[in-house]
From TrEMBL, chains A, B:
InterPro entries attached to this UniProt entry: Amidase, Amidase_CS, Amidase_dom, AS_sf
Alphabetical list of Pfam families matching this protein: Amidase
Name of this chain's protein: Enantiomer-selective amidase
Single GO MF descriptor: ligase activity
E.C. code: 6.3.5.-
Length: 445, 445
């Protein structure tokens, strides 16, 4: 990665949501000014990063002025009121183009808002634009899409990760303080980790997926990417329809079960050490995974069938509109037999029971978010601890188990390896999100 | 069918459960005597009908004597106490051989009771023996099994129907007053209709399927076969863990939506007329099915994948232990792609909504149970209204929609066509079972 350099950052690089919300309410800044900062940052940085597929400057400024008027009138819609937000381009946003990262939808303009977008707007958020997604969200690398790869703000030669690559790059580059993504096998957490920001995948179904173009319906989650765990919490609660408010207090220091990632995938020693070191001083126990070997087959057994069911007619009618790698993967997915899909659901039940067992012994589970830092754009094999391994499954291997289980999972940045960010992943029981966020805030802080 | 003759009948041919229960409590008969009658009938008739795979004379008589002692001591376990019952041979019964109709399980002795059997025993029922099932319950004809075909008491050259063929034949021949079966696409209702008795498939999950060898888990139901709807109700309530007691009274005469069966399958005109005529004098409206054309693909898309997932290792390791037709069907089922399975579940959701809509307009839906009366054992094509049609899908075509929907469905005998029985099928909302049984009692009466 020869082009490494100190990257530029936009206005929001040093900002958090609470600070922005306070300044908006103090009159120290207006939403229109914040939105102009976001638009400036996109103009200045996105040539290189390709984080955005489209920007709605006019619509955003109009929403911002409306938010300013509402706030001035004392009509406070909550913590995202007046905040510029970016939305992944597989999420429908009324009146805006939504391409799914695909030539199939090059001219598609959404006629209605996805439920998560409706909730953002109801909370007064200002939607600045749509972020680059891996084509149909079908890939963890973020470098195959009709509009080209999104790139890593820490090094534009490095992949952003995906599929919510543009959302992660936009936050990491300080273009926006918050972006919405989706996560089927890690598509929020992977790019957040590779780009050095926080990313949260809620419990399955906690944020409705209506109006999100499906990848694999039983694995798809709507999630958020922001600079800090606290900002993830704020945005998550808006999207989940929960009241804003202080965290439920925990009953004592959280106990953590450390999952040595080698049980799931060959993991770079430095990456593993950084993640493990971030927990030093905490109550950590080693966890033995009872049943991890089959998780790749389980994940693929579920996803292949569900993904091809979404795309069968497009593959038959207009295969040339897919990029070759995605087309090839879909054609392979078509061949997964139905009985393997059924078996995968049976395995999923067993894995859920195993995860429930682990989370009855530990408040949180912890492991690296990815087994290695960002590979180069387009790279498909990488050397890890002296072995060549697959980039694609490698990226998914530590995050997808929590999609299969449907439990909340957060990534927080814990340092850099050879100049590129590394994430620590934390997993909790549904309902223990506040404990997760509070613990992570201590780590990330 | 050259061998047609006036069939012999066993002791229970003219008996109903309430009458038997009354006589047991009056001391007019003992459970030991009833059990001896059942064993006599099996001995006398089963050479011809092959309804039973195994009979547990000793165990049954022991249970009967215990029931007699309990009843004499005033320890009344309810309406099945002391009643001889037969159980389909894919349902585990502790200490008895359970073959699944397959050479794979020729020597399998159950180590525990299925939950439905546990409930029968807890209700004091006397389990007489295990009834012939189509091999692994995988067929509606009842004529492929390791132990040979079960036969129709109305004409032993005619098929019993299946897969619970032995259960239906045993009740129709008066060997027992009650038999338990399973119903994945009609496997209780089809043989009940072809043999001229009543058969009830409860709502999905209303009777636990634990301990029942699976055919297709999301379609499998445990059901009952008896002479009358009232007897079906009595047995159903025991199996479902509901209190015995008088039916919940209806708010007025039930309204019925008549589904012309031609929308689902070419139906013999005489069969259709008999079923329709049984409703004369009732409040009947014609029903238009919105979405019936794809139901066969939906059913097979679900069943193929689920069935092969159960049998994959057996097909790989010991294909020679299957009968050829069942092996061939399983090998075809293995090729159903996963995405078709996913689509089938999507179609299922649409069909469920359609059925819910129909049942919001009508208390009951009615149609024939099968499109034709019993074909000959081994027959796979049949002429209906001058057209050659498939026997297998024909038998399933009118019953399987209610497995896909998971709603209760009952068949009652409504006469004979060319000397063989014809069934009327009635479908209701889960929760409206009493209304269904009461209406059917009026028909069958």
């Amino acid at each position: 990665m020869s082009s490494r350099k100190t990257p530029e950052r936009g206005y929001f690089a040093g900002q958090d949501l609470q600070g922005l919300a306070d300044r908006l309410r103090e009159g120290a800044v207006t939403s229109a000014e914040l939105t102009a900062h976001a638009l400036d940052a996109v103009r200045g940085l996105d040539q290189e990063l390709n984080a955005f597929v489209s920007v709605d400057a006019e619509g955003a400024l109009e929403s911002a002025r409306k938010a300013d008027a509402e706030l001035a009138a004392g009509d406070d819609l909550g913590p995202l009121h007046g905040i510029p937000v970016a939305v992944k381009d597989i999420i429908e946003t009324a009146g805006m183009r939504t391409t799914m990262g695909s030539a199939h939808f090059a001219d598609h303009v959404s006629t209605a808002d996805a439920e998560c977008v409706r909730r953002l707007r109801a909370g007064g958020a200002v939607i600045v634009g749509k972020t680059t997604t891996h084509e149909f969200a079908y890939g963890p690398t973020g470098d195959r899409a009709a509009g080209g790869a999104s790139r890593n703000p820490h090094d534009p030669a490095a992949m952003s990760g995906g599929s919510s690559g543009g959302s992660a790059a936009a936050v990491a580059a300080g273009m926006v303080p918050l972006a919405v993504g989706t996560d089927t096998g890690g598509s929020v957490r992977i790019p957040a980790a590779l780009c050095g920001v926080a990313g949260f995948k809620p419990a399955y179904g906690a944020v409705p997926a209506d109006g999100v173009f499906p990848l694999s319906r039983s694995l798809d989650h709507v999630g958020v990417i922001a600079r800090t765990p606290r900002d993830c919490r704020t945005a998550y609660r808006v999207l989940a329809g929960l009241r804003a408010g202080p965290p439920r207090s925990a009953g004592g220091p959280a106990t953590v079960g450390w999952i040595a990632p080698g049980a799931l995938f060959e993991t770079d020693r430095e990456v593993e050490e950084l993640a493990r070191a971030a927990l030093s001083g905490r109550a950590v126990q080693e966890v033995e995974l009872g049943d991890a070997a089959g998780l790749r087959q389980t994940y693929n057994g579920i996803q292949d069938a569900e993904a091809y069911a979404v795309h069968a007619e497009r593959v038959a009618d207009a295969p040339e509109l897919f990029t070759p790698e995605v087309l090839e993967r879909l054609q392979a997915a078509a061949r997964t037999p139905g009985w393997r899909h059924v078996r995968a659901f049976e395995e999923r039940q067993r894995w859920r029971a195993e995860v429930a067992r682990l989370l009855s012994h530990h408040d949180l589970l912890a492991l690296p978010t990815t087994p290695f830092a960002a590979p180069a754009v387009g790279q498909r094999e990488i050397e890890v601890n002296g072995r060549e391994v697959e980039v694609r499954w490698g990226l998914l291997s530590l995050t997808s188990p929590w999609n299969i289980a449907g439990v909340p999972a957060l990534t927080v940045p814990v340092g850099t390896s050879r100049g590129l960010p590394v994430g620590l992943q934390l997993v909790c029981r549904p309902g223990d999100e506040d404990l997760l966020f509070a613990f992570a805030a201590g780590i990330a802080g």
